[in-house]
Amino acid sequence: MAETTEPEQPLDSLLSPGKKGVMGTATDTAELADAIAAGDRRALARAITLVESTRPDHRAAAEALLSHLAASPPAAGREALRLGLSGTPGVGKSTFIEALGLHLTAQGLRVAVLAVDPSSARTGGSILGDKTRMEQLSRDPRAFIRPSPARAQLGGVARRTREAVALCEAAGFDVVLIETVGVGQSEVMVAEMADVFVLLLAPAGGDELQGVKRGIMEMADIILVNKADGDLAAAAARTRADYAGALRLLRRRPQDPEGVPLASCVSALTGAGIAEAWQAVTALADWRRAQGHWEATRAAQARRWFHDELRQALLARLAGDGALQARLSRLEDDVAARRLSPAAAAALALDDSRKP
């Protein structure tokens, strides 16, 4: 059985001195990094738990771990293909991922699945049921499935999905599949951390005008109409044709060859079209590598990651300033009482934050 189903080490033990495999010292960080690089999935699971933690000591340990891994990147040829996958709820994302994952592991590839689940608006928790949905893939020794709650993060991915991708790459996985929450047109953040972005659609889900709407449609590289089987086969074919026609109206991007974005039909239930879909993904990835777009995109993604982290760090620093928080509370009251406009209050808050 794959180690994806085995219990993880509790977070507290990751930083407790005197225990084997903990993260209390630089030596421990190096040991965990070495275990990840050797393909130890228990170590990978612990590391993802660590980077997802919000505790300050865990964040410091996670940053040390990521810095150590960044200084020792994977060997040439081991760079993972990052495949983003989105779609509306109920379109069959988990079924498709399992079918694709089994197709890839049968070819000898190692596949990591980072699935982001919607979270409760009240408690912040989530069911995290992707392992149960992907029952066969979760038992495959060449697969690793990690569900994470989205919490309050927008854009369809979790707060630390980028770090989890980096850890999976360091562990030597050939393909990292990033499954988004699946909430609609705004799920474009996954396109900023993937090499190829696939959008799953359901048959007869709308008219062809959806194909030219700005947002998630124009970010997708490949559009797959799922459930093209049984009674829905004819409807899937019509939907594919509608989207193929509409997508021709979109302006071609510099990183796209002729014919991209493309629309095709698949059936995650029967497996029809899965091999062809993967062939389209690899052909597009190879073209982008050959044309130099791959490295340019990866560099741009790293810059965006830096700016995102910088914004989060600045907000955290502001939140930790007690005097400033008291001032912000008073400004909030002024805004609520309509004595100040939100823009004017924000300007005053920024002026206060600059004062020594």
Describe the protein in words.
The protein has a seven-stranded parallel sheet, sandwiched between helices. The chain has three domains: 3-71, Single alpha-helices involved in coiled-coils or other helix-helix interfaces; 81-291, P-loop containing nucleotide triphosphate hydrolases (Rossmann fold), CATH 3.40.50.300; 298-354, Orthogonal Bundle (Helix Hairpins), CATH 1.10.287. It contains 13 helices and seven strands. The protein is 46% helix and 11% strand. It is of the alpha/beta class. The model is unreliable at 1-9, 14-22 and 152-156 (pLDDT under 50).
In short:
By secondary structure, the protein is of the alpha/beta class.
Layout of helices and strands:
Blueprint: H1 26-37, H2 41-52, H3 56-71, E1 81-87, H4 93-105, E2 111-117, H5 130-133, H6 135-138, E3 143-149, H7 161-170, E4 175-179, E5 196-201, H8 216-219, E6 222-225, H9 233-247, E7 262-265, H10 274-291, H11 293-319, H12 322-336, H13 342-354
Helix pairs in contact: 1-2, 1-3, 2-3, 2-7, 12-13
